[in-house]
């Protein structure tokens, strides 16, 4: 089980700084420490420091919950828990923030709206910052011209805007349509503002609550009986489509990197005689992890040697090595997109004399031990528990400090929960998205997009259910029509766009990036200027 020493040490360091911050005010100002132990301050800069510290802890809790739930999902696989529990766990920090904002609100005003600000901010960030990152970091040549294999001459940036991009499968569009359906409750909540009557607000809240709760349960049941969404998420979580060794041999346009292949050949040619021998080939196979039970099988080496040795002189020359490896990369890349990747099949299928029983042992199979599985489960559980406890402890003081800082610094109250908090809590998701997108395959882009759409759908339904339930039970006053309008415009626009096409050129990613500052401007105008 992993022990996160570095993070633990940093947390201790932050706690010490918080204590110092709490003691800098002397005896002239009094405040009530949260939980009786956490420091407090009424100074503007002290409050800002506390926001930064609590935000880091919230992001750390999000990372632990995400890692733990993904590990659990990878161990258990699709099923009832995969359709509900792991989605809720992945959204727990946002869910807890929304719940705390409603429960800690005495008048239901700004504090209750902070939860909706974070909900809408997370959804908008997923679709306008994380989504276009898949295109900008995962783009490749859309022409798919295998004859153009060299990465020596990179096209200009302007040409890349139209010639490069990503493609997705049809199932990705289906998940986008589900996301479009999840926006219906946001539209319904706009009715009081459209009609101009506040007397029906409570009725609309109840109707919307029943609707979104029904949609949430229906979506869970649909995933149980039609598990294709779970299967795609399982494939994304377990990273079965990621082939790092294949990716390193591809250039930025997703085609074989001839220059790098030649450099590999020169590295294999240890005696610099211009030829690669049987022993040198074995070194190469071990380097790219084409092994059988931890050791490269001699028969397999001979099989691959025959594949490379076109001239039949028992040596591999540079032109032979480049030609065969390029062909292998083309077929492997297509197999990755079709999700049937097997690095050995290219070489095994070429040996027509080998029968099926002789070929099977060449493909390594790992059988996990029971002790190893128990340790994996315990590690996943510890990550989730630690993340939940950490997120729960810091969410309430984070909300109170946000409101204090907004009042003292005279900044829009929506800015921190809409922008700063989602930025910090989504750091791990952004890095994971970039890492997956850089595989530059259709399958990688499709699964990453599907993960984003499903995350927005589940987060919207679960968080909105929690928010409306608290508002209705406590009969809180609230005015989040501006946030609802912004998230509705972004989600509906992106859902229509992504549900009707499967090809996304590079320029589209940069255009979508611009939608995030536009959403900030819209929210500022609606909540500050036009009030």
What does this structure look like?
This protein is about 70% helix and about 0% strand. It is built from 26 helices and three strands. Strands 1-2-3 form a three-stranded antiparallel sheet. Helix 6 packs parallel to helix 22 (about 425-435), helix 8 (about 170-180) packs antiparallel against helix 24 and helix 12 (about 230-240) packs across helix 23 (about 440-475). The radius of gyration is 27 Å and the shape is elongated. The chain starts with a helix and ends with a helix. The model is unreliable at about 1-5, about 25-30, about 145-150, about 240-245 and about 350-365 (pLDDT under 50).
Query: Order of SSEs, N→C?
Result: HHHHHHEHEHHHHHHHHHHHHHHHHHEHH
How many helices does DSSP assign?
A: 26
The chain-level structural class is mainly alpha
Low-confidence stretches: 1-6, 23-29, 145-151, 240-245, 349-367
* Rg from Cα: 27 Å
Short description:
Helices cover 69% and strands 2% of the residues. By secondary structure, the protein is an all-alpha fold.
Q: What descriptors fit this protein?
A:
single chain, 531 residues, mainly alpha, 3-stranded antiparallel sheet
Topology:
Blueprint lengths: L4 H19 L20 H33 L3 H4 L1 H6 L1 H12 L6 H29 L1 E2 L15 H7 E4 L2 H12 L2 H5 L2 H5 L5 H25 L2 H11 L5 H4 L10 H11 L9 H10 L10 H11 L9 H20 L7 H4 L7 H4 L10 H40 L5 H11 L1 H11 L4 H33 L6 H19 L3 E3 H8 L1 H15 L2
Antiparallel strand pairs: 1-2, 2-3
């Amino acid at each position: 089980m992993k022990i996160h020493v570095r993070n633990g040490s940093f947390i201790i360091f932050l706690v010490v700084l918080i204590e110092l911050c709490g003691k800098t005010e002397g005896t002239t100002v009094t405040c009530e420490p949260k939980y009786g132990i956490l420091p407090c301050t009424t100074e503007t800069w002290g409050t800002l420091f506390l926001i930064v510290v609590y935000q880091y802890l919230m992001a750390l809790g999000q990372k632990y919950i995400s890692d733990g739930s993904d590990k659990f999902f990878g161990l258990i696989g699709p099923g009832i828990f995969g359709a509900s529990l792991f989605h809720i766990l992945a959204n727990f920090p946002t869910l807890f923030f929304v719940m705390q904002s409603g429960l800690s609100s005495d008048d239901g005003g700004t504090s209750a709206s902070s939860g909706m600000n974070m909900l809408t901010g997370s959804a908008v960030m997923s679709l306008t910052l994380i989504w276009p990152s898949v295109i900008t970091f995962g783009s490749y040549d859309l022409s798919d011209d295998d004859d153009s294999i060299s990465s020596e001459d990179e096209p200009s940036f302007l040409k890349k805007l139209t010639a490069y991009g990503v493609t997705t499968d049809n199932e990705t569009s289906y998940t986008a349509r589900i996301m479009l359906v999840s926006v219906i409750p946001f539209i319904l909540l706009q009715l009081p503002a459209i009609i101009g009557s506040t007397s029906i607000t409570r009725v609309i809240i109840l109707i919307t609550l029943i609707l979104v709760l029904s949609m949430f349960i229906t979506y869970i049941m649909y995933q149980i009986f039609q598990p294709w969404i779970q299967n795609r998420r399982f494939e994304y979580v377990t990273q079965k489509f990621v082939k790092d060794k294949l990716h390193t041999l591809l250039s930025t346009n997703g085609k074989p990197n001839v220059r790098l292949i030649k450099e590999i050949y020169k590295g294999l040619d240890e005696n610099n005689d211009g030829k690669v021998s049987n022993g040198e080939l074995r070194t190469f196979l071990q380097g790219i992890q084409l092994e059988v039970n931890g050791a490269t099988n001699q028969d397999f080496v001979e099989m691959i040697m025959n594949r490379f040795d076109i001239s039949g002189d028992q040596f591999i020359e540079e032109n032979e090595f480049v030609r065969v490896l390029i062909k292998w990369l083309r077929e492997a890349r297509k197999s990755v997109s079709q999700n049937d990747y097997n690095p050995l099949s290219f070489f095994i299928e070429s040996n027509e004399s080998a029968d099926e029983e002789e070929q099977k042992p060449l493909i390594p199979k790992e059988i996990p031990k029971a002790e190893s599985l128990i340790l994996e489960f315990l590690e996943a559980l510890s990550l989730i528990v630690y993340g939940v406890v950490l997120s729960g402890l810091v969410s309430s003081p984070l909300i109170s400090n946000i409101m204090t800082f907004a009042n003292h610094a005279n900044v829009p109250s929506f800015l921190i929960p809409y922008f700063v908090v989602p930025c910090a809590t989504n750091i791990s998701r952004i890095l994971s998205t970039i890492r997956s997108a850089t595989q530059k395959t259709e399958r990688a882009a499709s699964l990453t997009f599907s993960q984003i759409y499903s995350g927005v759908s589940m987060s919207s339904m679960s968080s909105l259910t929690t928010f409306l339930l608290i508002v209705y039970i406590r009969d809180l006053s609230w005015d989040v029509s501006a946030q609802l309008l912004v998230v509705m415009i972004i989600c509906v626009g992106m859902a229509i766009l992504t549900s009707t096409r499967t090809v996304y050129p590079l320029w589209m990613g940069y255009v979508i990036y611009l939608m995030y500052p536009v959403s900030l401007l819209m929210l500022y105008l609606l909540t500050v200027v036009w009030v």
